[in-house]
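Sample entry (284 residues):
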Amino acid sequence: MDMELRHLRCLVAIVDEGTFTDAAITLGVSQAAVSRTLASLERALGVRLLRRTSREVTPTATGLRVVAQARRVLAEADGLVREAASGHRTLRVGYAWSALGRHTAAFQRRWAKTHPATDLHLIRLNSATAGLAEGACDLAVTRRDLDDRRFDSAIVGLERRMAALSADDALAAGGPVRLADLAERTLLVDRRTGTTTPELWPPGSRPATEDTHDVDDWLTVIASGRCVGMTAESTAHQYPRPGVTYLPVLDAEPIAVRLAWWHDDPHPATQPAVELLTALYRAD
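Predicted structure, serialized as tokens:
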């Protein structure tokens, strides 16, 4: 016999109610059905779970352990049902490093005002799909194209590329920079989620690179002066850091900001989210 949730619910009901009769009333079944269900569970597990007398029903030592585990399993199952039923009342938006930069707070506030029935949650997850493939979010903010047929996406805006330098770097006091100014430096990159690669530079004048996987580590290394970085403008707004200076890169193409979602299961709030973010970026 495959154990089912109804077997666990029956066991817990008997223990909570104290009698087979009361458990049957709680479950909305006959007392005979309760007895059969419990007997099936005990046969499946190969142990006695309850001691039954004419006056009371009490768990055995093994029964106590099984009941405790059954409660956890049932709670998780109930939580799964609630999540599935209420999923469209929550919109989870994943991002890897910098959310929506200067537009993050405005997006949250305007969404709460215009869509009060759908709670908005921003989730940071440093993966290639910002949590979309992992099931951690319904929409993902990405700054590179997801070359994956499982997902659709829309460009909602553009952001300038910014160089990130140690505050005491000689370039930090000189205003905007060009790609050639960074060609002799060591570039710190996140190859999983980042938008910067040596291919931004012409062949023969590309910088050396080191890898990182976290924005805090990226900032710490740049502040030390060992490496420089290049990132979307949103990072400068989301992560101002003492010891790090952000400067525009004049000859680097802007970065497209995309909102991505599952092709075969888009959240009902996808289009309103795309429209709101497009409007916010267009206002720039």
